[in-house]
């Protein structure tokens, strides 16, 4: 379980760094196109200034969304980025239509559906009429339309995947915590059923000042508590298998238990070693999605088989 959590955390860190780097790369590629392509002469300085103004804000939005944050500042940041990009478009020219690509990705990750999809479609519809009628360069209409669709989607999809992994990680933690709580409640219930009546009797007898009986019953109850604590330290085989199945399910591995009838005794040391070895190998297998834990009784000797698929 710990190894799965570490792998998930590493994936989130690497994916977040990759998404941030990609969000920086898109504006820089567009700036390079404006600076070097012969169809877009004379506007490199303006494009560089506007890019330097909106890029830090864009990086902050991508990074905060990848971390799972949702704040009003993200929406206002999107408004500022959009204002800078559209405000500079008449001055820089048709090459600046490439700045709509990262803007489309920000729209998908910041605005809630279905408004995000409508705004995304509206942005994808801007390059064609702008290139044809505003800048009189129709040869760029199809290119920038496809660029907005492709690069905008490629920026948003990793953010959505990172969010899904975070939700899965939170679900695993909740399941593990729930398994611990259920085990504590089970122990509490058993203590109430076994020790509770004895303690109530002690209180009643103590109120009647039956000192000799009180001492004797106190010793008996203490012995019972010690036996129960010993049983909890030496967990039954069924309880240990059920706990292992719950933790494996929390790790995303569907688990089936096949147990012989009347399996209520303590766990033999050899069998416990086999189970722990099998479970360790299973958790190290990144491709494991389901497993079967089978306990076989061979003439009173218990053996365990752990198979995965």
TrEMBL record:
Keywords: Membrane, Transmembrane, Transmembrane helix. The chain crosses the membrane at residues 12-31, 77-110, 141-165. This is Signal transduction histidine kinase subgroup 3 dimerisation and phosphoacceptor domain-containing protein.
